[in-house]
Amino acid sequence: GQNIDQPTEMTATEGAIVQINCTYQTSGFNGLFWYQQHAGEAPTFLSYNVLDGLEEKGRFSSFLSRSKGYSYLLLKELQMKDSASYLCAVMDSNYQLIWGAGTKLIIKP
Amino acid sequence: IAGITQAPTSQILAAGRRMTLRCTQDMRHNAMYWYRQDLGLGLRLIHYSNTAGTTGKGEVPDGYSVSRANTDDFPLTLASAVPSQTSVYFCASSETGGADTQYFGPGTRLTVL
Q1: Chain B residues in contact with A95 (beta carbon < 8 A)
Q2: C-beta atoms of B106 and A41 within 8 A
Q3: A21 in Cβ contact with A7 (< 8 Å)
Q4: Strands B56-57 and B44-49
Q5: Do A42 and B98 lie within an 8 Å CB cutoff?
């Protein structure tokens, strides 16, 4: 079967760094996406990785290891507005997204 | 408008009633999707359409139907609602339906009693 695993909840301090991990097992692989979702709102796109390595975009970076079925999202210089759920999704061989349940990130002052 | 709109924002529905959730995009994207999001679960694909005139079944299609008469609109119909269809429904679109980014509408919160 297809499976995406990520922690249910994480807590971090404003100004710190946090790493959210995602492991996956899917039928085929056409890339891994990270989305941010604030409570009561729609998911919004953060990053896309299809090749191994680190992609940096401002305060956010995303890493992929296809051989290990593993990705992480790194958030630096945390701000209160980063309090949200972070969704990991893998695009399978049919170009359909398989979604993790999301990681709720709580930022404390 | 720019992006994806959904209507209604929220709805309370009696079991057994028919309901259509509306979705419109103005980005001229070829592909559109319907997902449901339930607490503790990832987004699950209900139906999708890679281009106007074609539709396909996702992971959880039972009890739902869709149509794609034109590029912009992708309505989702519940023929006879049941309480297990209580959920938040998101419509999304992407440019090609391949390995490209999906953009989401604001969602419809549906409660079936």
Answers
A1: 97-99
A2: yes
A3: yes
A4: antiparallel
A5: no
Q: What is the pLDDT of residues B8-29, one digit of tens each?
A: 999 999 999 999 999 999 999 9
Whether residues B42 and A96 touch (CB distance < 8 A) is answered with no
User: Residue B93 and residue A21: Cα distance in Å, rounded?
Assistant: 26
- Phi, psi torsion values for B84, nearest 5 degrees: -70, -10
Task: Enter the tokens of residue B62.
Answer: 């039972």
Cβ separation B43–A44 shorter than 8 A = no
In eight-state DSSP terms, residue B73 is B
Residue A99 sits at the chain B interface (C-beta within 8 Å): yes
B40-68 pLDDT tens trace: 898 999 999 999 999 999 999 999 999 99
What is the arithmetic mean of pLDDT over A81-96?
A: 96
* Helix (H/G/I), strand (E/B), else coil: B83: helix
Please give, rounded to a whole number of angstroms, the shortest distance from the CA of A53 to a CA of chain B. Answer: 18
Confidence class for position B32, pLDDT limits 50, 70, 90: very high
